[in-house]
Amino acid sequence: MRYLIVSDIHANWEALQAVLDATAGQYDQILCCGDLVGYGADPNAVTDWARKNVHVIVRGNHDRASVGMEDLEWFNPVAKAAALWTQRELRPDNAAFIRNLPKGPCAVAGFQMVHGSPLDEDEYLVGAADAVAAFSYISARVTFFGHTHLQGGFIWNHSRIETVGKTGPQAARQLLDIDPDCLYLVNPGSVGQPRDGDARAAYVIYDPADQFLFYHRQPYDIAAAQGRIRQAGLPEPLAFRLAAGR
Ligand code: ZN
């Protein structure tokens, strides 16, 4: 079984379409580490697609915020404005679907998926110290996570932590060899709002039987996504940051 693993789509329909076009025929199932909506201008199109096509979706903090399950006091003004806009925009059936998304971790065929970290769906796994703490309570060989919008991850290699960086700017993909003696925390990166300095949409193709995992980056029509954000009246920084990949 081959999986297309995505995260943090954030209602960016143009980025999602580019990923789906680039990966057609390369996977059997799609999995998502959360944040379908929030920030971008197409929450209904993305949720309609997810309902039909994604096998497992772990809920993200922006999914909760977009259906009134989160105290927006902790959101910055731009994120709060986007969450309130998304609450108004989402059709009731899509809001109900998002409200019922499971909290991670979700087990899938020998690996697992979370939004933030295995213990706390809202925790940001950014550095090696965060990863050490997370590895201490996971047993699945591979855990996929999102939330930081940073492609890469961490390897627990005989009590040593190694950091996996994002795919280089000149490369379209990067192989991660899966060693059965190691544990892996893998962030596919963000489809709809990358923050690792690379504006291209990010995703992973994973085949647990063959033990191969590829990180990918895919260019998309950023100007079109920015146009949709401006047309919707969402805050300008949400359009600007897409081009910067920040
Ligand atoms: Zn997110």
User: What multimeric state do the chains show?
Assistant: single chain
Beta percentage is 15-25%
**CATH class descriptor:** Alpha Beta
Which small molecules are bound?
zinc ion
Shape: globular
Question: Could you characterize what this model shows?
Answer:
- The protein has one domain (3-244): Purple Acid Phosphatase, chain A, domain 2 (4-Layer Sandwich).
- It has helices at residues 13-23, 43-53, 61-65, 77-89, 92-99, 128-135, 222-231, 236-244; strands at 3-6, 29-32, 54-57, 106-108, 111-113, 142-144, 152-157, 160-164, 173-177, 183-187, 201-207, 212-218.
- With 246 residues, it is α/β, with parallel strands linked by helices.
- Bound molecules: zinc ion.
- Zinc ion binds at residues 8, 10, 35, 60, 62, 147, 149.
- Zinc ion (ZN) is lined by residues 8, 10, 35, 60, 62, 147, 149.
Quick rundown:
With 246 residues, this protein is an alpha/beta fold. It is built from 8 helices and 12 strands. The protein has one domain: Metallo-dependent phosphatases (Purple Acid Phosphatase, chain A, domain 2, 4-Layer Sandwich), CATH 3.60.21.10.
What's the topology here?
Layout: E1 3-6, H1 13-23, E2 29-32, H2 43-53, E3 54-57, H3 61-65, H4 77-89, H5 92-99, E4 106-108, E5 111-113, H6 128-135, E6 142-144, E7 152-157, E8 160-164, E9 173-177, E10 183-187, E11 201-207, E12 212-218, H7 222-231, H8 236-244
Q: What are the defining features of this structure?
A:
single chain, 246 residues, alpha/beta, Purple Acid Phosphatase, chain A, domain 2, six-stranded mixed beta sheet
